[in-house]
Amino acid sequence: MMLQNPSSKYRAFPPVNLSARQWPDNAITRPPIWMSTDLRDGNQALIEPMSPEKKLRFFEMLVKIGLKEIEVGFPSASQTDFDFVRKLIDEDRIPEDVTIIVLTQSRDELIRRTVDSAVGARRAIVHLYNSVAPVFRKVVFGMTREQITEIAVSGTKLVKELVKQHPQTDWGFEYTPESFSTTELDFSKHICDAVSDIWQPTPHNKMIVNLPSTVECSTPNVYADQIEWMSRKLARRDSLIISVHPHNDRGTAVASAELAIMAGADRVEGCLFGNGERTGNVDLVTLAMNLYTQGVHPGLDFSDIDAVRQVVEECNQLPVHPRHPYAGDLVFTAFSGSHQDAIKKGFAQQKPNTLWEVPYLPIDPADLGRSYDAVIRVNSQSGKGGMAYLLEQEFGLSLPRRLQIEFSRAVQAVADASGREIAAKEIHAIFCSEYFDQASPYAYSAHKMVEDSSNDEPVQIDITLAHRQASLSLQGGGNGPIDAFVNALGLDIKLMDYHEHAIGSGANAKAACYVELRLENGPTMFGAGIDSNIVTASFKAVLSAVNRQLVRAEKELAVAQ
Ligand SMILES: CC(=O)SCCNC(=O)CCNC(=O)[C@H](O)C(C)(C)COP(=O)(O)OP(=O)(O)OC[C@H]1O[C@@H](n2cnc3c(N)ncnc32)[C@H](O)[C@@H]1OP(=O)(O)O
Ligand SMILES: CC(C)C(=O)C(=O)O
Known about the structure:
By secondary structure, the protein is α/β, with parallel strands linked by helices.
């Protein structure tokens, strides 16, 4: 089956008639007021809503992160939600600087129960909503604009009357024209003005007007236009907090929220990691960390993102996607060779407390409490940089550049053959079998050196080797130990390059040596040796290179025959 022509079933979202729009030139220089609706919009969208214990755990985590406004439920919907709000209040679990929000439809009995649930809180916001878009007016309610306005106005009057009876609580009020983004702007303004006319907010006691994209139906620039239009035209603007509540149906909730802030929104409602109805609410983590990477502190603390993710996954019973911005398992991982190379160079050059300049990584993983361990992983798409990085990070082996190139072919062959990721341990095992463990035909057994500066060849050496299992004693002299060792072997060896470094320190320190040499007329090849004695390590490296050359030559001969 083919996708049908959509033009008779769907139509383009109309643009907003907004002259001289300001928002495209604005930048976000401070964080909005954040409101978490995880325990309400997030919870109502779960396959299994949270138990009271999980809700409490989630609430405490939100407080720890730094959320000052938390929508704790829809208390008239269920006894569980009502009891949870009462528990928070009666057990004095709400910190002084945190305000709880309780949501209700604009219906008499639901409003009464909602206010009851929050009585006694230090501060609480009653959040009233009704849907206002044409499709709701027509399909759900069968009502005119006037009747829909009356639902909002009568609900606001009732909230005002009820909260007056409980002056011990500092009451705030939030009104949402649900489905705002698909509503005619003049009607949204009309209904919000009618509500604020009843509530009578002041600059010192503001009312929240929350303008949701209940279902995201347009590009983010259209939403921004809608917000700027409202921000310009709403009555009593200086007494209002304009809030946005983007959903993610088109996958652009984060962009919508960001452009909406540029367009005048003061507050954002969303959920951690974008949980929520259908495709979710806007993700507060991404929004906050996007700000952080622009040099603006979001006022929320995600410095241990894995701990936050763990609580959210356990409470929501939903996994966070491995590629989720900032938090997914794979977002600080590079598989492809050129990325690994650039990241490795970036890390090497990045100085503490300077501007972050590591290619491909928009943020320092350490700022989220993530380690660098997972940054580079190796599969068939990887190059030398990745495997060299892992060998160095995990095993302290710092391979010279030309050895990296040579060794990457061995890893590539394994990755290609298996078609899967090669873990650091496996890379190390391949390195050991390719270089350190090359013990045939020659294996090192022992050596003894005599230094005699009066001699033309100041270093004399006795070596004992195993050659195809038979013991072999050799003597030689040279300018230094390696020269003497090579001379003692009596082979046509040309030493091209030599590197050494220590691994670890103190009594357990070891030395790693890498030599590149040519045997007879063969190609240059590397060998590597490791030992607690640096001279022994260098002899082992020479034998490793010689053995690799001889094995290669034997194989070539076998193929030729
Ligand atoms: C976009 C959002 O996320 S909004 C939040 C949505 N969240 C939830 O709905 C979760 C909790 N809700 C519930 O548990 C239930 O809906 C309750 C308890 C609130 C109400 O349950 P019920 O009384 O059975 O009503 P029901 O859920 O069927 O709601 C539909 C009725 O409410 C009316 N209604 C819906 N929203 C509103 C509103 N905001 N204001 C006034 N009336 C409303 C509808 O017109 C319909 O009325 P009708 O039955 O006369 O046709
Ligand atoms: C009730 C409002 C805030 C809502 O959840 C929505 O419009 O998505």
